[in-house]
Amino acid sequence: MTGSVREGTSALLVSTDGRLLMQLRDDLPHVTDRGKISLFGGRREGAETFLECVVREIHEEIGYYLPPERFELIGRYSGPDHATPNGTLRGEVFLARDVPIDQLTVTEGRIEIVAIDDLERISDMLARPATFALEIFLKRKPMT
């Protein structure tokens, strides 16, 4: 018997000053990765594409509209869904840069602003999707 399939997107947001804008998830029973630091994003609805999903979800969750061309696809995932027994999770991870912190209104959880140098300090608090996206991002980031 096969389980359910969840499809969604998330985005690693980088502020205008180069810090990471992440979400401290609410610590509520119905919230996936509750109390962890994760990325903004969510589940696909209807026939929307992953890109349409990330544009909608980010706008809903940070109160700031980033058009589709601001998102760069950096990774795809498909595998076991740790939140659903016998479930499968499929999705795409995007990157958006130059997001103005002072224009955001976070509607779910709290914003967690993290300097890249502080990632090791918070590594135990990261949700799996955030860890996955950060591994991709850090491999791509030019070292200075």
TrEMBL record:
**Cofactor(s) this protein cannot do without:** Mg(2+)
UniProt KW keywords: Hydrolase
State which residue ranges cross the membrane: none
- Transport found in the keyword field: no
Short name of one Pfam family: NUDIX
Q: List, alphabetically, the InterPro entries matched.
A: NUDIX_hydrolase-like_dom_sf, NUDIX_hydrolase_CS, NUDIX_hydrolase_dom
- Keyword Heme carried by entry: no
Superkingdom as given in the UniProt entry: Bacteria
What range(s) does the Nudix hydrolase domain occupy?
Answer: 4-138
In its UniProt entry, what is this protein called?
NUDIX domain-containing protein
Give the originating organism.
Bradyrhizobium brasilense
